[in-house]
Amino acid sequence: MPAQEPFKFEPLGFATVASVSEYAVDAWQRSLLYADVMRERGNQYLAHLAEETPNVLSFRFERVMSGRDLKRPVNYGLVRIVPPEGVEIDGRKRPFVVVDPRAGHGPGIGGFKAESEIGVALRAGHACYLIGFLSDPVPGQTVEDVMRAEAAFLEKVIALHPASEGKPVVIGNCQAGWQILMTAAVRPELFGPIIVAGTPLSYWAGWPGRNPMRYAGGLLGGSWLTALTSDLGAGRFDGAWLVQNFENLNPANTLWTKQYNLFSKVDTERERYLGFEKYWGGHVFLNDVEIQYIVDNLFIGNGLATAELVTSDGLRIDLRNIRSPILCFCSMGDNISPPPQALGWITDLYLDDGDVRAHDQTIIYALHDSIGHLGIFVSGSVGRKEHQEFATNIELIDALPSGIYEARLQEKGPQTLHPELAFGDYVLSLERRDLDDVRRIVKPDPGSDRRFAAVARVSEVNLSLYRTFVQPWVRAAVTPQSAQWLERLHPLRLSYELASDRNPWMGWVAGEARKARESRKPASADNPFLQAQEMISRTVEASLDQWRLWRDAVQEQTFNAVYGSPWVQAWAGLNATDAKEPRQHPGETPEHQAFLAEKDERLRDEIAEGGLLEAGIRATAYVGSLRGSVDERGFNLIQRLCKHCLGVTDLSAAELKQAIHKQADLIRLDPEAAIAALPRLLARADAGGIRLWAETIDRILTASGPLDAAAAGRLREIKAVFDEAAHQGTGVVAPDRDAGREAAARQAKRPRRKRQPTEA
């Protein structure tokens, strides 16, 4: 019988025992540290709500104006951002005003980090202001009251910056975007360029299978539930319900990924997690009349995009009245305000490209490839790229002639032409687009609009039934105490409070976490149980994602089946056989048609007015109109030419904008007559200035690349006109350039005929 070999522990056995022990210690310590972060999160939540003016700004600020002091008081206020040490503000540059969304969270997200909308504007030398708000609304305040307050705040900012070369740049994030556009439609004279970031403006729009939030109103039977929720809150709507809607969009992130990311990286994620949760848990309230107006007129009624809203004093809120450039910044990865909702108002409002130009509107859109909704305002990478370029090129944006453009950013590299003419690490180009380009993004669907129109009608009926038969009983039963208890028992609020030091069961966590931190022993990256943990996490996340896809598909199919039914549409007053779209474009008034005809006639009368500056810009616009894009390098060359070469140092940004707009309009109106009039404009200039402009036009137009054949032909035509004018002016080949600069400066100071005020 063979002798048995002595028993041996295999190395794998040793490794397994060691791995189990290592992972068990690591997991227990991470659990304690995770629980401690959740305890800190709860304490931070309670401390934040107890602040007099809760916000998440990372910049110091000074109060400028309180909305509570207005004739119609509101819970909004205006603050000035104190520039960080080493940042110099240029009093001639237009100020920036950031308006943060009141959509469930508190203010400050626009200045949440150093690399933010506020941060990049400060570094560009602009004074910055924030329009924020308190947690509780003033009883009875309305959306219109907030609009009036925003107008009053902008009047104050304008008064504080008399030396500014232009009206304030206003940035509206998410919900604040549609709010400032409504204000700008009523008070257009107060606004410079407007940037709306992640802002839904056309609420029925969306891509099938990708944007489920828009179906919520129909699946709930309309806005009656909004009224019930406000009634249960004794006239206040808890913003935590809005935050709950956002969280329901992505259950994998809400229920697992966000918390697991903290648990698995608890040694490094604490600060970032608590910083975000300070904003995410800063729930605020709206008055019942505010939220009802928003849900009825925007979310369900979708009345803003087709000029259907009218103020209490009879003013129609028509976005076509806005005279400032509107830059819509949205992202393909945003499932809260997707591109169709951010850009659909353009196709809702305008019939064609001529309609856009007839209303003298400049619309720019910028599409990010992947960033999520909050990343549009919070992400440091977006702050360093998109917001940095928008801030440093705001005068280019303001000077753009009317039309639709897409903002494109290209990183500088060895192949970049004239990189010294572009700010920062990127080159901003604004490429001409037409309404069909926007339609390809939005993908308008008349059938879908018909279903949403049915929802709007059903909502009106259900809300009327609730207000007539149920609301009186609910309001009679609700007390301030019951409203307070319902507020505290909201699931999101409970998740913060139950993990705070108010819960006696959390008393031991801080001490144990301190011990774990002192004896911390993380598992090695190759630990098999740590790898299994990651695999399980991915499985859970994938399972929740699959459940979300199934849920969203069921909701969409249910919505389409119910509101696509001919019976439901007929009951809602819609004729299923009617080929007419359920939402018509807003019509033109005879007064506006007469205004346009008068404007064109006035332009024709002024076609021969101006001098060297007007001739140079007209010639540039004539050739550049064939390029299909406007580049920051060319615009910066024009500014340098005017201020440094021609000596027109007192040419303001507003005057340059006016000249660019007028000459572009003339080229569009009658290019042949506009170019034929060039010799008459150049006859008033010195030959030195003429030759300088002729040399520079080529540089301006080729700063971003060579011209195509058609544009090159126009450039030769222009050069011939300028050369002939230079010879006619002096009879010499090389005139004195200093004399040319002096003549150009005198010409720029010549009094110009003022333009008629645009239609409000």
Known CATH architecture of the largest domain = 3-Layer(aba) Sandwich
Strand order of the largest sheet: 1-2-4-3-5-6-9-10-11-12-13
User: What's the CATH topology label of the largest domain?
Assistant: Rossmann fold
Return residue spans where pLDDT drops below 50 for at least 5 consecutive residues: 731-760
Treating each run of at least 4 consecutive H or I residues as one helix, how many helices?
31
Which outline best applies? globular
Number of E-state strands: 13
In short:
The chain has 760 residues and is of the alpha/beta class. The protein folds into 3 domains: 61-216 and 287-443, Alpha/Beta hydrolase fold, catalytic domain (Rossmann fold, 3-Layer(aba) Sandwich), CATH 3.40.50; 218-283 and 464-515 and 522-572, no CATH class; 590-729, no CATH class.
Detailed description of the structure:
This protein is an alpha/beta fold and 760 residues long. The protein has three domains: 61-216 and 287-443, 3-Layer(aba) Sandwich (Rossmann fold), CATH 3.40.50.1820; 218-283 and 464-515 and 522-572, no CATH class; 590-729, no CATH class. Helix content is 54%, strand content 9%. The chain has 31 helices and 13 strands. The chain has an eleven-stranded mixed beta sheet with strand order 1-2-4-3-5-6-9-10-11-12-13, with helices on both faces. It has a two-stranded antiparallel ribbon with strand order 7-8. Helix 29 packs across helix 31. The longest helix has 40 residues, at 11-50. The model is unreliable at 731-760 (pLDDT under 50).
